[in-house]
Fold this sequence. Notes:
This protein has helices spanning about 1-10, 15-40, 45-65, 80-110, 120-145, 150-170, 175-195, 200-205, 210-220, 220-240, 240-250, 250-290, 295-325, 335-355, 355-360, 365-385, 390-420.
Amino acid sequence: MKRFQELLSGNTAAGNMLKLGGGTALGQLFSVLVLPLISRQYDPIQRGHFGLFSAFIAIATVVVGLRFEMATPTAKSDREADQLLTLSLVSGVFLSIASGGIFYLLHFYGIGGYGSLASWTSLLLIVTLILTNAFSSLRFWYVRRADFGGISKAMVQQGFIRAVVPVLLGLLKFDWVGLAIGEVVGRMSGAVSLSKSAWSGIKSALGDRKSLVDTALRHRAMPLQMMPSSLIDSLGFSISVPLIYSCFGSVNAGLYSMSFMVIAIPSGLIAASVGDVFHNHLAELLKSDRTQITGYLASMGTKMLKIAVLIYLPVAGLSYFLAAPVLGSRWEPLSWMLPALVPMVIVSALCGPLSRILVVVNRVDLKLYTDVFALVVTAGSILGCAWLKMTFQTMFGIHCVAIFVCRLVYIWVIWLSSLPRNQREIASHR
């Protein structure tokens, strides 16, 4: 207990991971506890509709902030960090509204299954995007300050609300919208919790527009390279639900969405507890001795791989026997879907946190090429199977292999970027 208290009170990597991991685990625990209730309140068709909504959120989230928030931990000063946060928040409002217009057009023309959703859903989407971007931007701002305890508290609060609200609305027969409202309220609570310490810096940044523009130009690689790369990466992953909805039906889209949501619970824990701390320590190495970055990447990657294997091998076995009893008989296909996802998700659990190095060493261009490859391969696996009239089961297996291969390529690119000869300085704007 004494060692435990020392870790929590200190600023070591292990202690920071413990803070974030504990908060994330508790937040995720609420979702796990209510999962048997939610799976019985919302059927696969409703889950498919929510999957469409969530897929658009996942794709648009990486665009609306123009990725300025990811440069915050490595900002040269606190003032520049405040400016990057402000740039992300301001662009988030305007681009969220634009994204709502695109969502409405998809609904109006019935593209990708979005015609099955109500037209007013676009308004709900705008609010969700603004709040999601605010939480993400503030989280990176807290990473710079190494205030992992503040992030942890926000994660617990957000996790509790996101778990409870859909259950309560499910009792009132809110259809899939109950899940969406739970996301909105949960993200609002998280953003409000983190915003209290940032207001003064935001006001100061808004008052000096010239410096704000200079900061935007100095970090122009974020909207010009990182944002398109993140968009393509997100498309490669999230576009699967609309494609499956269109090619294999709403029920299979719901099963697919649910399987990825369940399997992502442990990997989300790994990514949250490691990624932010990893980013913070990389920023410190960049200032002190960038030659140590490669060794630090290898060390963290090895540890994360061990953790992922220890978590997911039992998950593969347990899900085969417990999916139907825990989630309900209509989710029985998850008993074979979840084990099939395990190899892919182990590799993916490494990619999320470790990819932060691409921002730190200014090699987001490498990520762009990798993401284009992944988009073509993963989307092509679905469309190709549909064109050949394969069953959903066959398509799912091929799709899992395709994602696995793409993630291996991604890890190779991450390793290449860490080598000293491939690192780049962020140019100053004059």
